[in-house]
Design goal:
Largest sheet: none
Structural class: mainly alpha
Order of helices and strands: HHHHHHHHHHHHHHHHHHH
Bound molecules: 4-fluoro-L-phenylalanine
Radius of gyration: 21 Å
Strand content: under 5%
Helix content: over 70%
Shape: globular
Distance between the termini: 44 Å
Number of helices: 19
Amino acid sequence: MARPLQSIHGQWSSRWAFVLAATGSAVGLGNIWKFPYITGENGGGAFVLVYLACLVLIGLPVMMAEILVGRRGRQNPVNSLHSLAIEEKTTQDWQYLGWLGLTAGILIMSYYSVFAGQALAYVFRNFSGVFEGVTADGATSIYNALVSDPERLLAWHTIFVIITSIVVARGVQGGLEKAVKFLMPALLAILFLLVGYAANTGIYFQQGIDFLFHADFSKLSGDSVLTAMGHAFFTLSLGMGAIMVYGSYLPKSASILKMTFAIAFADTAVALLAGMAIFPLVFANGLDIDAGPGLIFHTLPIAFGHMQGGAFFGGLFFLLLVFAAWSSAISLIEPAVAWLVENKEVSRRRASVITGLVTWSLGLLTVFSFNIASEWTVFGNTFFDLLDYLTANIMLPLGGLLIAIFVGRIMSQDSSEKELNIKPQYLYSTWRFLIRYIAPAGIIIVFLNMLWN
Ligand code: PFF
């Protein structure tokens, strides 16, 4: 920390740049891949309602808490928590919460980039027309040919890690901000185009909409409620310092409450639009809506393969997935890069190369878990299963819980009130109630259930 922080710590050019970047972080594989398939598996509309409730009661207050810590600490998550702990005269061990976040980001990035790499491969596969008239078996064998070949999978994974590291190396305004200013509008344009394409399926479009918005509570299990809560965390990029580090680049004057609502609204809108683009195609082709994780890579190519203009729109769909993943991936490694820059006296470029290399190497575990190491399992789980479980089910909820405790119970009311600066007062009191009681209780329930299963 020898160099003056002002010179190495970036800042967004405006509050809107922050909203765009945080939305870019939130909108990712979680929205376009995971949300549609878990909604499909959990019966549709009722699940969407529960998910929205979790978003409002747990997601929003925790996101505000993360931005608050970042902006008040003005450094990477480890240093921010360290200095706020000193300010609040409590144990400096809170910095380990920052470490938990940095580690989670690197671990998530290691597998996220493998899936983003697969999506990248599918952009080319779709545009080239290989899925035209494809059968279910055909689609499966095209997918297997990709993932069972370690070299090919490795090549796509490598490309994705490189493009992510390049953006991060260029800094907050020159890299992150520039990237999201291109990626987010492009993503929205593609998404609207795809919804328009799905609208051409007539009655099936209606069927897709009904599936998303018609609440049938009989299909909801206890487990779906927990899935919804876990997803609220993942989709808003909470619990690992990504939003915290983005908050540290935020000008002091911006309203944290308003920006949080904008980010959560945009994230939810994209997830719902993705559902509106995907479900009608699945219904129109008589395919399985509850295909699970295979919905995107197995089911959807069959749907595109049997539709007019399917090769083009299929390619666009996977491009959308890549753009979404890209703007999320930069936020996965940014906390670690910021830590290196702020503590180890290395340039941003070098810090990005180091972080990229670490995530790339760890990613080999996921790459090989699809092919040469698919037989290597621990308690029946492959490396990828383990990583996914460890990060999404344990590290993020734990990180979120600890952030809620730190901000709601360790930090003084005066500090959080000043930093949030919410008017009218009852809104602040509502947030404080949610962060002190509802969010921790909700997270503990999710957490216990995960451990139970
Ligand atoms: N929010 C991203 C998604 O929905 O795909 C995933 C994610 C990104 C999680 C960044 C955590 C994070 F820090």
